[in-house]
Each structure stands twice: as C-alpha cells, then as structure tokens.
What we know:
Blueprint lengths: L1 H21 L1 H9 L5 H21 L7 H25 L2 H8 L6 H21 L10
Amino acid sequence: MLVGFASGVLVAGAVFAFITAVGVVPRLAQKTGTHKNVRIYEIFVGLGGIFGTILGFAKIHVPVGTPFVILISVCIGIFLGCLAMSLAEVLNVIPIFTRRARIQQGMFFIVLAIALGKLIGSLMYFIIPGFFDAGSM
C-alpha cells in the first residue's frame, strides 16, 4: 500500500512538473490578458488535480447530472488541447514545420485544421459506439 501511494505521489508530481515546465497556465494568462490572476489559475489546477484524484481513488459517486458532466468534459478537453499546443510551442514544432514545409501564409487554417481534427476525432470516439475498440488492436 505504501509503494502504491508513493508511486501515485511520484506520478502526480511528475504531471504537475510537466505542466509547469510547459508553461500552459502562464501562457494562457498572457494570451488572454489576465496575467495578474496566474496564481489563482495555478491554485485551481492544483486543487482540480487533488480533488480529481480523491474522487477517482475513493470511488465517490457524485450525482451531478448530464449537463454538468458535459461542461466538465468540455473544460477537460480545452485544457488538454491547450496543453498539447503549449507543448508544441515549447518544442518549436510549429515554427520548424512551417520553415521546412516553406509555408508563408495560412497558419490560421493549419491551426484551425488541427483543432477541428482533434474535435471531430474526440466526438467520434465518444459518440459512435465501438468506434475505437482497444481490444481489436
């Protein structure tokens, strides 16, 4: 039990260190012009991780209803999309790609296509029964 708990703490620490290293929260605050609230954002990211872990570990059933689940799912999707784009930005994926592909214009459409592809793929995964069956791989 102690090893399992210690492993969970280690993984959680690594995830939060990764989020910090990528800089998704400060970058979002900078882009939205709310950089004065970065501390509050970071606190809520930490609290979300803590409460999510407690709810997942304790198997507590919280009767919140479908609209709340949809809202939380959208928020999680937005956060993960921002995390992925922040990682791509930190690794300079987009500038390297545009230089190598010699793309001069149309970056808006490339980013839009990436976002829409992620959205459509996620919707297909969650809406179409059996769309992605891990057992078939």
